Amino acid sequence: TAAAAASTFFIGRARAEEPEFVMKVATVAPVGTPWATQLKKVKTAIKEQSAGRIKVKTYLGGALGDEIATAEATKRGTIQCFGGTFGALASAVPELDVLELPYLFPSEKKADEILDTVIRNDLDALLWDRGYKLLFFSENGYRSIGSTFAVSSPADLKGRKMRAQQSDVHLDTWKALGASPVPIAVIDVLPGLQTGVVDGFDNTPLFAFAASWHQAITHYTLTKHIYQAGVVVLSRKFWESLPADLQTIVMGDPADLAKKGRRGVRAIGPMLEQNFVDAGITLNKLSDGERSAFAAKAQEVHDKFRSGTTAQGKALLDKIKGAL
């Protein structure tokens, strides 16, 4: 009948307008951060360039779970894209802990150079072998110490319960500095600080404010002990399911995306440091000598990583240190 024909037409049309692929993007980066802004732009670009064939859904603030859970779900293919830290990806690819070694990168410029030109191909191959496709680098920045007590030397950390990212290198760094690491997920840090489960944490000024962790501390000490790159990876299963034209669209321009992501984070760095002062939090800028005392203690973490990693991990460390 005419009615049945019309019904079939509209159902067929609706189905034709459904996306061929849905790409869920998971990150713990909260709303309002440069990360959230960049992912929104990536989402728009993919939708427009694919003419709606790919629908991108972004889940911010750990809406799909913590970093380790979402990194592992991306490997399985139940989440198609992960944006976060190498420390979290190290749960699936332990060699990546090399990038989180304390006092490894002396400057942002040097970190950029090594990631972009020295080891990018190595990381791409390593991630591919473990179930991921590398898209582009971004940035969290230099991690420093937020605490409910004053910190100017490793001695001040002795016995203190410090929140640790759930990664061997992060746990070992706190131990080397004399603290007692407590590995808890991002969403549990603020209540942990408020109830005394932990006495402090390490993260960037950006993340400390974005996640409201600053509300529960009295001091922020610029140890800048770990430079933490950000990274966006796809599930290899999802990547391989895409036709070549859509792969090109999803890949975009990795160098340009990295540049924009880093620029967005770095542009607000000085303002965020001032925010601690404005919030009544003591901002402690260490002298070169004080920072050297932290760096000296942290060297044992490098030695432990080298002795415990694979041949691939050692090769990455050698390549990085050679370039430095």
Structural notes for this entry:
The chain has 324 residues and is an alpha/beta fold. It has 15 helices and nine strands. The strands form two sheets. Strands 1, 2, 3, 4, 7, 8 and 9 form a seven-stranded mixed β-sheet that branches. Strands 5-6 form a two-stranded parallel sheet.
Structural class: alpha/beta
Portion of residues within helices: 40-55%
Distance between the first and last residues' Cα: 76 Å
**Shape, per Cα inertia axes:** globular
Q: What is the H/E order?
A: HEHEHEHHHEEHEHEHEHHHHEHH
Number of strands: 9
Describe this protein with a few key phrases.
two-stranded parallel ribbon, alpha/beta, 324 residues, globular, single chain, 15 helices
Layout of helices and strands:
Elements: H1 2-17, E1 21-26, H2 34-49, E2 54-59, H3 67-76, E3 81-85, H4 86-89, H5 108-118, H6 120-129, E4 132-147, E5 161-164, H7 168-176, E6 180-183, H8 189-195, E7 200-203, H9 205-210, E8 219-235, H10 236-241, H11 244-251, H12 254-267, H13 269-278, E9 282-284, H14 288-308, H15 311-323
Parallel strand pairs: 1-2, 1-3, 5-6, 8-9
Antiparallel strand pairs: 3-8, 4-7, 4-8
Helix pairs in contact: 7-14
